[in-house]
């Protein structure tokens, strides 16, 4: 990767030092990279980010063999340079300190106290670079009785309450259920990104960097949103409703003749139109179901009646008829359906980038559509240490001989150069 400072993107010219791994931090830094920042991902020589081995599936090389690059790793590491440095070695820590002197942003997700012992904590680096924005991502934050604990997405979903709201009720054979993707990690990465952008704006006015302490647990509690505030308002602990909604009815999956579909009636007018399409005007006229509040109070009576009606037509027919009447509805797609959907293609949510191992690589696109400074897909997720030589030469002025010495000592790993 011979050049990382693309002139394109709203964050072009920003240098990000990424000491994070797994998902929350890499999600944050990938978006910074999409927006034009130069992102230097520091990885352990020989091993790299833990997620490189989290497979199968693994990317196939041009001969059809597993390359060792996992789909998990590929999901959150594009638009970055991989620099392999052993921070357990004093020379390695010095290299990272020197990079931090030049960085605008540093993102890390080590256990509380780990980087302080290595001289890579905020106070130490702030003394070298007063404008540094330093974002620490942890399971439970830098303070509080749980600060020492490790945090994993599944654990956070359970402790943070979202699993108590997800899944079918006990009487329907359900159990508390996690989301099918690492949503606690992803949302933490999003909150971290918001904090970093706010800190950059503050620095543009004052010249001062700052420290950002963000945790998976705090973020999980924050995005309980309406359910969390409903509890704080009423004192009633909400239960699991399967695919139903706590305060909107009907808003659920319903069985059609061939498969389930989604009905999302958001107001009384839409319920009237649904009943017209369904040939069930008597339900719209029933005072027990006249308003949304009535339907919520009487969901146990209404929903079984609706299910008796929806099984009389195929899902496709319901969707066609209801869309024509302006009633929100839709299919329950699997991922094959999603990535073959014409809307996904039209919105650029499936992208293909060149890759040095496989030739090309399909990834999920960015949802950010910006008229003046669009996101760019400049680099595929890098192979381990692919950019070590280029970055250390370009930013720190190391010579070829110095790199060779550091490599021979095991301080750095010099991977194969990436596509540029």
What do these coordinates show?
By secondary structure, the chain is of the alpha/beta class. It folds into two domains: 15-222 and 342-413, 3-Layer(aba) Sandwich (Rossmann fold); 251-255 and 260-331, 2-Layer Sandwich (formyl-coa transferase, domain 3). The chain is built from 19 helices and 14 strands. The protein has helices spanning 24-34, 71-74, 90-102, 114-117, 122-128, 153-159, 162-165, 183-206, 216-222, 225-234, 268-278, 281-285, 292-297, 299-310, 315-324, 335-339, 342-346, 388-396, 400-408; strands at 15-19, 38-43, 58-60, 66-70, 81-85, 105-108, 133-138, 210-215, 251-255, 260-264, 329-331, 350-355, 359-364, 412-413. The strands form four sheets. The protein has a seven-stranded mixed β-sheet with strand order 8-7-6-1-2-5-14, with helices on both faces. A three-stranded antiparallel β-sheet has the order 9-10-11, covered by helices on one side. α1 (24-34) packs across α8 and α8 (183-206) packs across α9. It comes from Roseibium aquae. Keywords: Transferase. GO terms for molecular function: CoA-transferase activity. It holds the Pfam family CoA_transf_3. This is CoA transferase.
